[in-house]
Amino acid sequence: MAKQNIYILGIESSCDDTSAAVIQNGKVLSNVVASQKIHEAYGGVVPELASRAHQQNIVPVVDQALEKAGISKEDLSAIAFTRGPGLMGSLLVGTSFAKSLAYGLNIPLIDVNHMQAHILAHFIEEENFKKPPFPFLAMTISGGHTQIVKVNNYFDMTVIGETIDDAVGEAYDKSGKILGLGYPAGPEIDKRAQLGNPKAFPFTKPKVDGLNFSFSGLKTAILYFIQKETKAHPNFIEENLNDVCASIQYTIIGILIDKLKKASKETGIHHIAIGGGVSANSGIRKALKDGEQKFGWTTYIPKFEYTTDNAAMIAIVGYLKFLESDFAEQDVMASARLKI
Fold first, then answer.
1. Where are the transmembrane segments (predicted)?
2. 169: annotated binding-site residue?
3. According to the annotation, is 243 in a ligand binding site?
């Protein structure tokens, strides 16, 4: 008997990217992302503008995802959407659209935790990409989150370490702002870091107990350092920008890897996966790969397009939940502070 085709439409609208994807039996047929450039002028995401842009983008993005997948909406088996965490106005757009479409097509609705989705993106069917075995450690690093999660099964996850203040993505963006770089600053710092000396300017790593992180102290140290140096040498930033970026990145990566080492040692788990927008950073990817030689890890790094916010990761969670008939009711509500 031929295998039944399960088509899941995933919808992601947690922050400033409107995304829709179609997955067939775990394989991505389409993954469309509409980014919002409007926030660059403000140096950060403006929630009200984000939700308005989602309203404009969601219908064309879903249309495009279905068209690229070569199916019609009548072929869909279920609709998965990001329930949270995220910006409430943005989440409401995706939630309302998903509920209406599922109701209209009379097919199941599946709610997805955005942070679980970053981790479960590793289970998208992709050639030449190995999937982590359970249990594994996942480090999710993004503009809004920094967590180490012990993953026992698809839906059995425990946060064992997280940031007590700023997320790692914020540390990059706020450092970039201090240096006069554009938003988002992460990719620019990463690019310049590759041209600079990572040990030119030593920054102190914050001392935080257990497996938790802190980045606010580092951000303040960078601010005071730049203020002091530019007072003495007005051209300090432009003359040393690559070295400063390399030193900031070296410190941030050191903080992340130190905690991962500690987590691996404490749990006895040597399978390490990363996810979230900041995992696109070349320095972090290299440090993780180096960990295979240094610490005996096996590392799992998703395809670039599945690291930032995207609907393919929502759709794969939808597929895994569909197999377990784990569906949401029509009265399901978006939640800005949804926990793993």
1. none
2. no
3. no
Say whether both 249 and 177 belong to one domain: yes
Instruction: Evaluate whether residue 338 is within a structural domain.
Output: no
118 is in an annotated binding site: yes
The answer to whether 16 is annotated as binding is: no
User: Does 186 carry a binding-site annotation?
Assistant: yes
204 is in an annotated binding site: no
3-state secondary structure of 8: strand
Greatest Cα-to-Cα distance within the chain, rounded to the nearest angstrom: 77
Do residues 282 and 146 share a domain? yes
Split the chain (340 residues) into runs of 10 and give each run's mean pLDDT: 82 90 98 72 63 84 97 98 94 96 98 96 94 97 92 98 94 94 91 97 93 95 97 97 98 97 98 93 95 97 90 98 98 94
CATH label of the domain that carries residue 48: 3.30.420.40
| DSSP-assigned beta bridge partners for residue 81 | 11, 111
Q: Tell me how crowded residue 73 is: count the other CB atoms within 10 A of its CB.
A: 15
Domain count, the chain: 2
Is 144 within any annotated ligand binding site?
yes
Residue 275 lies inside a defined structural domain of this protein: yes
Statement: the pTM of the whole predicted model exceeds 0.85: yes
